[in-house]
Amino acid sequence: MIKILFICHGNICRSPMAEYVLRDMIQKEPLLHSPQPGMPDISVASAATSTEEIGNPVHHGTRNILRRHGIDTSGKRARRMTKRDYEEYDYLIGMDEWNIRNILKITGGDPQKKVSRLLDFTGQGKDIADPWYTGDFETTYADVTRGCRALLEYLLKQEL
In order of start, what are the domains of the chain with their CATH numbers? Predict the structure, then answer.
């Protein structure tokens, strides 16, 4: 089982978007549906580095764009990541450099090299803009989708 935790500031915009986009990709990926030896089971979740939005549902901008793509986020509530998440997950993926700094503060470091930014998997070491501030959920969705596709391709190559 490969366990992935997406992380952003409040866990209401980018990280739940990535969580649900990757889940959708996994459900639609033929290699992951056919019973082939050695293919990984992948578990996906998301969390925040702050406490500001704990318990709140996914932001309406994220819900709306995901709904247009046939993805439902019902029941998702923001939670804060913990130091224990470092042991529980194989990949801790932040959306921007600020998230990475906060993740490292919470975990106390990254000795196992589990922490990265989502767009690092695309070869573009850049941040995903926070639509809470930009209001641009379309660009965030495009970046998250590109990052999740690259992450899934990376994981499949690791297992083949």
Answer: 2-159 (3.40.50.2300)
